[in-house]
Amino acid sequence: MKLWRLLLGPIRLFVDDAVLAGILLAAIATAALLVWLGAHPLGAGGVLLGGCLAALVVSVGAACKA
Amino acid sequence: MDLAAWGGAAPAVTAAFLASLVEVVEAFTLVLAAATLAGWRPALLGAGAATAVLAILVLSLGALLADVPLRPLQFVVGVLLLLFGMRWLRKAVLRAAGILPQHDEEHVFATEAAQMVQRARRRDGAQGIAALAAFKGTFLEGLEVAVVVTAVGAPRGQLWAASLGALAATAIVLAIGLLVHRPLSRVPENALKLGVGVLLSAFGVYWTGEGLGIAWPGEDLASVAFAALFLATALALAAGLRRLRQKPTAGREGG
Predict the structure, then answer these.
(1) What residue of A is the nearest CA neighbor of B78?
(2) What are the residue boundaries of the structural domains of chain B, listed by start?
(3) Average pLDDT over residues B149-171
(4) Does the distance separating the beta carbons of A28 and B93 come in below 8 Å?
(5) Model pTM?
(6) What average pLDDT score do residues B161-181 get?
(7) What is the pLDDT of residue B80?
(8) Which residue, B80, B237, B239, is CA-closest to A58?
(9) With an 8 Å Cβ cutoff, is A39 touching chain B?
(10) Closest to A35 (Cβ–Cβ): which among B89, B212, B229?
(11) Is residue A8 part of a domain?
């Protein structure tokens, strides 16, 4: 938990919402991993784009619930 | 730079211009609040010092950028753009849906001015408080402008074109602001933030992908498709949330 906060700390300077930052980072990391594993570039691109759109929808939804 | 090169730089110039317009309006409001408290001299001193520090920062970092390999630069710039763009987009959707209050420059001006008066009373130094507030406001908003300009301009060597876009926005806001001498509350800030959020997020996905080695179909045109997708998602989200918020009220009125 502490490591997660430490990682998110500098990013929260740019993104003030932890949900948005977390999903964005996960999408970028997954896309990078897919490229490294030799997956089709469009698959990795789709994960990146889909992850960003999901990050927007989920973080807006979380803000509404809060 | 010939006409074709300027045409190619248009998306970067537009993004830098629109983002700077929003940030300079916010910085101007804070400087104006400082000037109201202690006069223009300390306010301009604070704003000028912040601009000088930012210029040194940008010039030294800009010189370093030339030595950074393209792929890592594209990746870092893409991630920065994504983080910035998505934050603006999220805020714009929440404001459009009525969940967050609209940004009101008149309100920001009144709040900042009142806080500065309180601080000045406590510490008995209106001039120093005003200069510090102007410095802080200009530096923080200017830093965002610098990041956006560098991020949209650097990957294609369009740093000068993007800087011109930012300078044009600064000149327009300062000219209008000094003329009307009050906070620029009629700037449609939410619509601008939505537009800039869409552009930065689309560039962000494009450059992050390029940095990772993803060859997008249609090359540059892919970023236009991304922008359309982000805009459609943001508008649909805002409309859906507005409808959801109206439903319980309509139900209660009906029953």
Answers:
(1) A28
(2) 9-246
(3) 84
(4) no
(5) 0.76
(6) 85
(7) 87
(8) B237
(9) no
(10) B212
(11) no
